[in-house]
Design a protein that fits this description.
By secondary structure, this protein is an alpha+beta fold. The chain has one domain. It is about 35% helix and about 15% strand. A four-stranded mixed sheet has the order 1-2-3-4, with no helix packed on it.
Length: about 80
Amino acid sequence: MTDCHTSTQDVHARQSCAQGQHRWRSIWREGEFVCLRCGMRALCPRCLLVLPGTPVALLLCARHRAQEQEQQPKGARA
């Protein structure tokens, strides 16, 4: 029964990631992230001056996300 439950969770996790609902966690250096579900890597384009040649997701880190929100007009915030 445990194996069936685990495989169901794995399928759900893969579906969530396929829909862009990753569970990002910071890793190694500032501006680098990994999805805890599928292992996909993401980088903050403002932290890293040179992006790698391999395709990765782009994700603003907490510091740059806060700066971005401060620059938006108050009416445009969600």
